[in-house]
Amino acid sequence: MSVDFNKDYKLGRNERAGIKALHLLWKRVPLDSACENVTDLIAQIQHCKQYEPNGDWNSLEASADSNIRSLVDLENRTLSKQQIVTDMIQDIDEGVEIVKPDNVYRRKLDEVDQAYKDKSSRQKYADSETMANYYSSLWVYIEDNDPEDDDSDIEVGSVRQNFNDPITLGLFENPYTSELCKHSYSYESIKSYLGDRVKRCPYSGCSASISVHNLKEDQRLAKR
Ligand SMILES: [Zn+2]
């Protein structure tokens, strides 16, 4: 079957199954392994830094950073595309006939792209699990490197100062520390991550199972 987009092509109930199938294909965009590769790369860079602290790591880190951001942009755009199609399927279910669906789709995607451009970095990346994994592999190195030092949360390298909370990536706001693994988070972000459940600490490589009851306000970080 071919579609002549110059005609007033319409999507209705008959096409629903076809759209749904295409929609499912999008879910298989193989971004996960690309993201894991970049996250591994940043972990390796951190490892190498240990042995060659005066090496020129900044440009490598910057490159890994811009790669992971591009991948998250792509991830976000794929999610937006899926959302547009989900909305179209819902319209069809409600009996709406979509006239010139290619135009409708492109217009909506343009709107999404524009809205995305206007977002701040924090809005783009703070909710991203990929980004949280990426930054937590930066953090784990710092913590692992100095396991005996109680103040290691405060005596931090340049990386830690740039990226604080593992979830929002922002500076700590109202910092709380897990009693079980001594990792720290902004209270609001860890609370929304955990909800009322027991979950794994969001730092990669940390296997502590924590709930909000394991968190304590951390004055040391607050005073910083
Ligand atoms: Zn932890």
Automatic annotation (TrEMBL):
- Give the pathway listed in the UniProt entry for this protein: Protein modification; protein sumoylation
Q: Which residues form the SP-RING-type domain?
A: 150-224
Q: Under the cellular component aspect of Gene Ontology, which terms does the record hold?
A: nucleus; Smc5-Smc6 complex
Q: Which UniProt keywords apply?
A: Metal-binding, Nucleus, Transferase, Ubl conjugation pathway, Zinc, Zinc-finger
Top-rank taxon, per record: Eukaryota
Q: Which CDD domains match?
A: SPL-RING_NSE2
Q: Where mainly located?
A: nucleus
Q: Where in the cell is it found?
A: Nucleus
Query: Which terms in the Gene Ontology molecular function aspect does this entry carry?
Result: SUMO ligase activity; zinc ion binding
Report the sequence similarity comment from the record: Belongs to the NSE2 family.
Q: What is this protein called?
A: SP-RING-type domain-containing protein
Which lineage? Eukaryota, Fungi, Dikarya, Basidiomycota, Wallemiomycotina
